[in-house]
């Protein structure tokens, strides 16, 4: 009964808050200005949009406010951003929004971040990442699987944004924090990385005196995994992570597979979708068959 009451309360709370938090009036920022490791003890330029007692607050291992539930040592530095319940024992949602930024059509941006979630009741404590565009918010990642009472380590995650048109975007973190002492949500080391194609012009002189210009497009490989870290998954010795971002990849040659590879620190692990779902590389998540019409033959079987 307790669990049902909390789920209903969560749904009502989100319906009330989501409609009022479309704040696109903030000044647009360059991507390089959105990185934050919170070592300067501020949220800026990120925007606090939490309502009520539960809010985001910068903490660290030596000056945290929840003495009975200290966070594990961060991956980098000592400061991190954590949900502060301010002594309240009520359920709440902490909301953190980035300033708006622009994505040109076809451009790709990778947003990486570290996080820690701990909960006695995983259904009540969670972290979700959304991208906001034109007043709509689209879910990019749901990290409920990491909300566990035994979780004592930070994890890394990367989400992919692909520009559909030149317009303003915003990234939003929603942290749902339960009422128990063990419940906690924290994030750290938010980084925006863009892959831009570099163009090299090669000019040659023809025999007639006219100039012929050829264009060669190359993609920087600065983020490739070092050869010493290219560890392969035991299930498939042929698969190698493409770069050192924490990403998911489809099974090569099988776009309708219920499995996928998850790369973390250049190490690939074969993962299975739960239930009758298919991995969708566009959303980097498992989708029900109803959303994957091109895979109807596989779903039928």
Account of the 3D structure:
This protein is mainly β and 301 residues long. It folds into 2 domains: 2-195, Galactose-binding domain-like (Jelly Rolls), CATH 2.60.120.260; 227-300, Antimicrobial Protein, Tachycitin, Chain A (Beta Complex). The protein contains 2 helices and 18 strands. Strands 1, 4, 5, 7, 8 and 10 form a 6-stranded antiparallel beta sheet that branches. Strands 2-3-11-6-9 form a 5-stranded antiparallel beta sheet, with no helix packed on it. A hairpin with an 8-residue loop joins β14 and β15 (259-264). The longest helix is centred in the first third of the chain and has 17 residues, at 2-18. The chain is globular and about 55 Å long. Residues 1-26, 197-222 and 230-236 have low confidence and may be disordered.
TL;DR of this structure?
InterPro entries: Chitin-bd_dom, Chitin-bd_dom_sf, ConA-like_dom_sf, MAM_dom. The chain is built from 2 helices and 18 strands.
């Amino acid at each position: 009964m307790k669990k049902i009451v909390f789920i209903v309360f969560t749904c009502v709370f989100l319906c009330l808050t989501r409609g009022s938090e479309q704040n696109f009036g903030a000044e647009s920022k360059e991507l390089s200005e959105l990185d934050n490791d919170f070592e300067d003890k501020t949220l800026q330029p990120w925007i606090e949009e939490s309502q009520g007692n539960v809010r985001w607050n910068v903490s660290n291992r030596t000056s945290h406010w929840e003495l009975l539930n200290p966070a594990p040592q961060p991956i980098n530095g000592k400061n991190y951003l954590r949900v502060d319940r301010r002594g309240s024992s009520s359920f709440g949602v902490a909301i953190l929004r980035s300033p708006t930024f622009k994505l040109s059509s076809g451009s790709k941006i990778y947003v990486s971040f570290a996080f820690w979630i701990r909960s006695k009741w995983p259904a009540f404590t969670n972290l979700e990442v959304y991208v906001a565009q034109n007043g709509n918010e689209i879910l990019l990642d749901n990290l409920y699987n990491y909300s566990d009472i035994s979780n004592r380590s930070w994890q890394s995650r990367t989400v992919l944004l692909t520009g559909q048109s030149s317009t303003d975007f915003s990234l939003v973190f929603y942290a749902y924090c339960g009422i128990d002492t063990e419940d906690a949500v924290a994030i750290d080391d938010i980084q925006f990385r863009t892959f831009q194609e570099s163009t090299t012009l090669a000019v040659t002189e023809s025999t007639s005196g006219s100039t012929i210009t050829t264009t060669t497009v190359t993609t920087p490989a600065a983020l490739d995994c070092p050869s010493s870290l290219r560890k392969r998954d035991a299930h498939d010795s042929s698969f190698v992570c493409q770069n050192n971002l924490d990403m998911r990849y489809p099974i090569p040659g099988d776009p309708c597979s219920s499995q996928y590879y998850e790369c973390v620190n250049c190490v690939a692990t074969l993962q299975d979708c739960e239930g009758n779902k298919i991995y969708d590389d566009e959303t980097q998540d498992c989708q029900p068959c109803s959303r994957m019409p091109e895979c109807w033959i596989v779903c039928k079987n």
